[in-house]
Design a protein that fits this description.
- The chain contains three helices and 20 strands.
- The protein is mainly β.
- It has one domain: Porin (Beta Barrel), CATH 2.40.160.40.
- It has a 20-stranded antiparallel barrel.
Amino acid sequence: MKSPVLRVLAAAAAAFAAPAHAWDIDWALGLGLEYSDNLGRRVVDPQSGSRLSPFADISASEDGETLRANFTGSLSYSRYSGVDFDPNFNIRLAAEAVWSIRPERLLWTVTDSAAQQPIDIFASAAPDNVQNSNVFSTGPTLLYRFSAAMAGRTELRYVNSYAQSTDAFNSDRLILTSRLLRTVSPVATLSGNASLESVQLDNPTATASDFERLGLFGGYDWRSSRTTLRAELGWNWVDLDSGLDNRNGLLARASGTFALSDISRLDLGLRHELSDSATDLAGSAPNVDALLLRDSVAGVGGAATLNSEVYELDRIDIGYSRLGELFTLRAGAYYSGQDYQNASTLEQRNRGVSLTVDYALSPRTSLGAFAIADWLRFVDTDFDSREDEFGLRLRTRLRRDLDFSLEATHAQRDSSDPTGGFDENRIYAAIIWRSQ
């Protein structure tokens, strides 16, 4: 069995062998205890039970001459009582390391993205309906400098995607990307881009085969001290090896980050392209904010449908954050549409919103509230569901390196499938030892 998580952890361990003072590292070790009145999230015969969960979080970064790296990870182990669920590990990870083998000439990059996703997308995310998924990537980057204003880069990447239970997600792929960049002002860059991808599936099927993807597109980047903008426009082609109808279509991507003030920011994202679930998961890795919301609302974005099918993706994301000394607010919303040519039962329209607020009652204690709502609709099967989760959180610092957290949460799901709904109330408490 492939183990890309172990590969990236080994790479991270090698990187950490650099002088310790070069790294900016934050970590936390904790022990959580949860009680739920419907731990299996079932509409029929709900069972109460508890979950004991030790966990470890780490966030590390390095910005040196030969190594630039960011690593955000969470590992937890859950053991259940009162219900018949097997113990399981939960890994969430976003890691990237770039080694400068020859400055301004040759780089080597390693990235990894791990998250939990449902096994059955039509059912609720109960302890017996989740699996760890992982997308690992590594390869060289060649840099060229033609003039003061003109540069280029060529990237070769090996990518492995793996899921515990959904074999159709597992694949190996090679991606070759070439970019020509022209600096047009101190803050703006134009680019011409070509990308060729070859995908070999571990378990090809009648509707999902090995494929090649080609993308040709132009790009524009604009960066200032308060704003970043990126836009890409072109065309992409997908050639399916099994004789199924090939696909091609418009490629359009745009994203922007706007600093509204010293403590507030607006983020926007738009995508229209031919994609697949491995590509999407690699681009939606968890971040520090998501890890701060552990065991409750992990941000907005919807669950992925793990498979190897190529689909036309339309997605809109918007996020707002205000990080003040006393009051913190994070809000987000998204819309996602996936159109499948050879697997119409998976065609879906999803949307969601989330809100998290925290208020500092004292230098040691904060009170927070969170809410999330997700709407999921499968077009061909007329299946739809709405899942809501909201609650309160109290955090207090017992001493400089020791925190206590207490959460009360209500979750519910309404579904067109009578067996797919649930109501759940839970209490979660955790003691957390943090780096100073």
